[in-house]
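User: For a teaching handout, I'd like to show students what a predicted protein-ligand complex looks like in token form. I'll give you the sequence and the SMILES for S-adenosylmethionine. Please answer with just the structure.
Assistant: Understood, here is the input followed by the structure.
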Amino acid sequence: MPWYDWFATWYDHTVERVYAPYRAEVVAALELAGGDHVVDLACGTGPNFEHLVAAVGANGRVIGVDFSAGMLRRAERRAADRGWSHVSTLQQDASTVGQKDLDVACGAPVELAGVLVTLGLSVIPNWEAVVRQMYDRLQPGGRFVVFDIHTQRWVPTTWLVKLTAQADTKRTAWPLLEQLGAQVSWQYLPGSPHLHGGTPYLAVARKPA
Ligand SMILES: C[S@@+](CC[C@H](N)C(=O)[O-])C[C@H]1O[C@@H](n2cnc3c(N)ncnc32)[C@H](O)[C@@H]1O
């Protein structure tokens, strides 16, 4: 992913300044417990890791998946610098990730209590197939949490986001998660289309037990 490999060099100094304030609330929506296993899909440079690591504790596992080697290298450096040995990474197209890939990345069988995708579903080309596959991997009672931007009316920033992040912000995750049988709640979060290119939203889907 040459674009995101290059974007990686300045992502944390630009995009992340806008989105850092949302991360704690978004991760809290996963309702993780100590020892849980969680996937951070399209994890980028790993800005969610800090909150995920705190939520699952030393006996849990965080698996960051991303297609871009440049983004993932930064995520790995972030984990290594902070001594988070229970963070694993997987450089792979999200649409091809199977249970075995997760187990191998982790070095142990993975039982997913949570899947998190922040600012990823608007970017992954075949996002609907990815949601279906990852929802299948989730344990009963597990949570699938999506944070992204939804554009209801186009403003100049929408074009900027489309160009820089290669994002289609017309997509919404919650109808598909409902279709899959999850108990879904979603809400718009504070934000401005002139800053985000649309409105930030948080969708929380619980797989029936
Ligand atoms: C806007 S960034 C979001 C990064 C991070 N989740 C965050 O919240 O800041 C989108 C990420 O999606 C990744 N991505 C795009 N297509 C992908 C795919 N098919 N499989 C896995 N990752 C993908 C990109 O490499 C990039 O890191």
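For the handout, you might add this sentence: The pocket of S-adenosylmethionine is lined by residues 1, 4, 42-44, 47, 66-68, 71, 93-95, 118-120, 123-124, 165 (CB under 6 Å).
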